[in-house]
Each structure stands twice: as structure tokens, then as C-alpha cells.
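Q: Fold this one first, please.
A: Sequence and structure below.
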Amino acid sequence: MGIFYDLPQCGAGMHEDAPLRQQLAHLQQQVAELQATCERLQTIADAVYNWEYWLAPDGEVVYISPACERICGYHPAEFRANPQLFTQIIHPAERAAVSRYWRRGCSSALPHERTFRIRTKDGQERWLHHTCRTLTTAAGVVQGQWHSLTDITEQQHAQAQLRESQAQLQAIFENASAGIAVATINGKIIMANQQVTEQIGYSRIELAQMPMFTTLDPAYHELVKAYIAKLFTGAITSFRLELPLFTKTGKIFWADAAISPIRDYDGAVRGLMGIIQDITERRRVEAALHEQQHFVRKIAQTIPSILYVYDRHEDYNVYINRQVTAVLGYTPEEIQTMGRDLKRLIMHPDDVPRLLANRDQLLHADDDAVSTLEYRIRHRNGAWRWLRSQEAVFTRNAEGQVVQLLGVAQDITTCKSEEERLQAAEAQLHFQATHDALTGLHNRRYLDEMLPRLLAEPANQPISVLMLDIDYFKRINDNFGHDAGDALLRAIGALLAAHLRRADIVCRYGGEEFVLILPHTPLDAAGARAEELRQSITALVVEHEGCTLDAVTLSGGVASAPLHGTTADACLRAADAALYRAKRNGRNQVAVAQPDLPPQPNDDLGGHLLGEAVE
């Protein structure tokens, strides 16, 4: 805004006033330019992303940027009105330390900075990085302190997650049940976990001083080198071999070795990582199992159920009898060819987690424990078949760990179909027992069950009850017939249901009376909802057999717990009394229950007596 002056207009003195007029015009131009500059500076300051503020030497807030509201939820005006708010929003655990930091900073001419937490207006915890510097004029006069606050909440969370991830990865690396080793492209071992040292017998220092192939049986050197060469060329992404390794004592143990390349950001191979599982015992057991399985096969062919042997380490059925063909349409060879992919290929995905959980329980069970599970398998023709499997521990290794499970599976598809039919029938019966046949809404029985239950739940939010009654409903039946009355009730029921929130409950309470339960709804909001419903029903147009029914009005009573009571009976009586008052006062209106209102003489909670009493 510029500064304007009333300049002389008369001709007599204009000549003498010309210099003054020029000075005033020049001054006016300077003021306008200064104001424009100030406005631009203000715009720039307000557009700064960080929270900036300027405190005068006496602590008065000279300037605070709008960004403070985005960061902490408080408007700049709130800090101007209460300078102590700067301290109050600091996290209680850090308030004392930050106050000391501010006092030291105020007494220092040097810039200072600190990271701390605040609590925003809505109670969230955020991390801020604070920097402060003293403002002085060219003459060295202190103008106060300029504070800058940067929201680093996301960075803090990311750093914490990174530290946690690194710690977890290190813990996984060191505590993995498998041996894990990392080597350079030249074959020098640069990392090995504790499991590797226990498997090989060499210390980490010793491993770092020997070539990667030192412990490998020489007969396998060329094979492994050929696979590694394919890794470097990209022909394969990893490989897995069963290899004989030499321990420090010269003993040979068999290793299941999975080798993968370590690549840099450009995709170039910079090293190799090997995961080593000692399978010496497994190979010994496999030989013994070969004889056992031969015996099992002879017996299995005579069993009418599916018989199978599941190997935990191989993660597939190492044996399954030919009954699988009769039940599922697959040959035993096809099932075994699926291998580890069987669960993915033909088992229902919803049932896989339960199967895995059941098998995990068997790992800690006694040998005589039997686990039963029902699950779905896709038949060769595409149909889902229900099986009931019973599994038990079949073999253990020398350490007592479960190696294989023996299972028997029966086709229970027919039984499950009958079970589902019975469940559907029970669900239908329950629906019929808790719903009104005419409107499809919940009935009074459901209300009598749910309202006490809702009121008994520990909650600080009110629960409101709306009791609604159609005015002069009998006239619809008299003028148009009972079928028309039923059509009207259905239409009103549909309208009420359409206006429900997810937590709301609407019931046909009896005759032309409806009750709505509105959880987490105070009395005033419930009254507004009731008024909206009254207006909607008044505007409702219902057609029946080519005839437009007369418009109807609605009277309603509203009560709320705990204001009008903490029991279902008290709330319904309060709403009923309010409904009676609405009827008595002329109908087509909503009345709100009054606290401690004595019950009316016609407060039969059947609801229909109210309507009859005032019709």
C-alpha cells in the first residue's frame, strides 16, 4: 500500500510548490517499491519448507513461518499467543535437555544444532532437527535468534529400520543353521559364519588364508569351476550341488551347497556366496530308508486309502501309493514329479499354511502322536476334492530330529458336501430366527440380544437408540389393503437400511415400529439422524399394484446411554417415552428423551401400544 498526499490544486502556489511535489512523488514511489519488496520477502519467507521463526532478545516472536502448522499442527498465531508453547510441545523425556541446549545456545554467538522429538497437536511423535544462529545488524547489534526446524521423522524411522535390518541380517548370518561363506572372485574366503567353522573345523582366520577349493574333493574341482564360469557369463543365476568336503581332521562330510553370485550395482559379479548344509547323515539314512521304503511299498498297495511318505528335507512325497490315481486322477509318478511344487500346483492356497503348521507341530511331538488335517486338492479333472490326512513321525536322524512323516489320506468330499449343506441350513435357520420375514431387517429377538451386549462393552462412547413409529399406519391398511401396508413397511425398511452406517443396527420392533441402535453416536447427532430419516420417509413414494400409496409421516423418540440409563430396558423406555411425547404433541416429529423422565402409563415396550394410544 502506497502513501498518498493531498497536493495543492490552486494555480497561485503551484509554481512555488513544484519542487515539493516532485519530492513527494519520489517519496511515494520509494515507499511503494519498499512495500513491494517487503511483500516479496514475506512471500519467500512464507514459502520456505522448513519451520522458521525469529525470537527477539526479549523472547518475543518476531516471525514464525506457516510451515509450523504442517509440522506440529499448531498455527503460528498460537505460538504468538503463548511463547511457552515452543517448550510445551517438546517430548517430556527430552524437555529438560533441550531447555539446557537452548540456554547454552542463547548465550553463544555461534550457530548450534540438535535433534529432538516433539508431540504434535494431534498427539503424534515427530523428530525435528533444530539449528539456531544469532541475528545481528551490520553494526553488531543483536536482533535476536533465528531458529530453523526440519522434520526428519521419516529419516529417523528409516535409519532405525536400517540399523534394525543390519542387526537382524548379522544375527541371521551368525545364527543360521546352515553354513554361510563369502568369497572373492579370486576364490579368497572373506566371510564365514560360526556354522562353517563347526562344519569344516577350520577357524575363520585359517579359512581366510586358504583357497576356496582347499576343502573340496579334487574329483569335483572341474565340475564346480564349470558352474562358476556359467555364473560369470550369466548362463545361470545360481547352482546347487551335493559335494564331498574335507574337514580339518581329514574326515569327509557331504554338503548340500547352494552357490550364488554377489553383484555390484552394475550387475558385475564381485564375489560368491555359498550356503552349506551338512547332509552326511541324510545320505546315510537314505540308504537305510531305501530298504524300509521297499517294505512299505509292498504293504501300501493293499491299503484302500492314499498312503505316502513325506520327507521334510526334500520337501516332497518320496513315496505315494497307487490309490492316489483312484482318488485324484494322478499317477504316483506324476505326484513325485511335482516334487516341492505340489503344494503350489494342486493344493488349495488357503489350506497350505494350516498344513505347514500341523507338520511343524509334529517336529516336537512324540512318535505316537498323530496329526489330523482336512484340506483341498485339485483333481486331475479340475474339481476340488477334500482329503482328511493323518500324519505321524516315520523316521528320525541320529540327533532325534524328524526326517520323514507317514501319512494316510481319505477322500471326504461327500462328507464335506453334506457338512456344508447342514451348515448352510443352520445359517438359514439362524437368519430366520434373527430377521423379520417381511422387511428382511433384524427382528426384536436380535435387538434383545445385541443391545445389552453393546451396552456391556467397555467404551467411553455413547450409544443412542431411535424408536420410530409410522403415523396413522392403520389408514394405509384400511384404504389400500394389508398387502399395500406390507409393501410400505418393506419400502421403509429398505430406506432405513440404506441409511445405516456399518456399525448401526436397525430392527423391526413390531407392527409399524422400528428401532435403530447407533453406537458411538451422542444424543444430538442421533436426534439429527432421526430427523433426517423422518424427512426421508415423509418424502417416500411407494407404488403398489399400479397405485401410489398415500404419503406417510413418522414420529420418533431418541435416547442415549449412559445419559438415559445403562441398561437396554432403560434406554428403550426412555426412547419409548420420547416417542409417546412426539405422538402426543402432534406426530410427524422427533422428540429427544429427557433425563429422569418418569415412565408414561402406556410404556409397554412392545411399542405397538404407543401407536394405538395416540392414533
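Q: Good. Now the second chain.
A: Here it is, same layout.
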Amino acid sequence: MPSTTRSLPNNSLHIWQIPLASSSIYAKEDFELLGKEEKKRAEAIHDSIAKQRFVRTHVAVRSILAGYLGIPVVQLRLANTALNKPILMPDLYDRDIRFNLSHSGDQAALAVALDIDLGIDLEQVNIKRNILGIARRYFSEATVAAIMAQAEPQRKLSFLLAWTQYEAYKKAQGLGLRGGDPKLTLCLDEFTENQFRPLFTEQQPCLWQVAALRVMAGWVGAVVMPQNDVSVIIDYFNYEDIGRNTL
């Protein structure tokens, strides 16, 4: 079990990078660390690589969260909201740790903070997507027009800048992708990594803030959380380096 509880100050946002490219098959003991529903989901995955990545990701999440609570992974209990957003089991722990997970290709990212809702999205750039179809379904007409006015490869990057902000926003709300917000126009300008700015500038006051993540080349990422008067410090960790010491 972890010898100490991992520090998580009130004004901190921790971003965990979880590499999934390892060719090794997960061990049986890793599978046993999953919850009942996670095991069912893993067993339903027929593709061996996808199953390996699922198990690796969810064991990493449990390991990381257990480190913040100072408990063995086997003692960690998770639950889901009514809209299926994972949370710590209510009223079981003395720290209100909030977290959100995203994965794309052979990378995953976990955002962790205290007492504040948050959402994260990570997208691999070179995956083929129906940009126009997705944009029309979820974005305002102004956002769609701004994206489609771009020539490739800038069009794809503009779409991903919009999409990562939008999905992270929806996940922070705990709503899932239940249709778009056609009146909300997303900013497609590239923004400085690790610096929060208002998510929707036409909202007064703006209730949400967004920051671009420091990610590997070939990925785009964003994190969203409610606006507050305290500057948030973003720190990065790699699960390969220090995460598994909580197992």
C-alpha cells in the first residue's frame, strides 16, 4: 500500500499521462483490481489490443486515485452518476477528489482536482473523422463556418481545437454528448498551454474556463473547469514513472 498520501493542494490541477503502447499483456492480478462493471466491460471487448488498453487505463486510474487517498488500490470504491460519470463512492472518503479520464489511440490522460468539477479531452490528430458531419451536429453555425473556411491541414487542427474544448466542457458538466449547444461559439485560436481563459466569450459572466494541455506531438488536448478567483496551477505526471507504486 502507499506509504504516504499524495499531495493535492486546493489550487492544483494534476494531469496524469498514461501511455498505452506497451505490447505486454496485462497480468491477471491487474484484471482483479478492476471493479465488477469494469470487468464486464473488459470481457466484452474482443479486440486484444483494445482490451489490453482498457485494463491498463482503468488500473492506472485506480492506482492514481488510491495514491491521493493513501489506501491500497483494492480498497478503492468508485460509483457512477445518473449520467454514468465515474466518481468516488459518495460519503466514503474524507477528500472530495474529482477526476476525469480521456483516451485516444495509445495515450490516455487523467485530470484530478479537489472539490471542483472538471472535464478533459485528448484527441489523436491523424485519425480520420467526418469533420463536417460532427461539427454540424454539435457546434454553432458560426463555429462550423469558421472551421470549414480553413484549408487542410489547418481545418483538422481547428476542428480538434473546438472539439476538445467542447467535449471537455460537456464532461465537466457531467452531461455526456447529448446534442450540441448551438448558441455557443467556440474560439478556434490556438491558445497558450497551461493558461486558463474563458471558454465562451459571449457569455457574461462566463462560467467556465479552458486550458490547452501539454501533450505529445500528434495529439491535441484541453481541460475545462468552472471559473473561480484563484489561479490554478497545472502539474504533469507520468504514470509510467511513479503511478504504479500505489499498487
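Q: Anything worth noting on the second one?
A: The radius of gyration is 18 Å.
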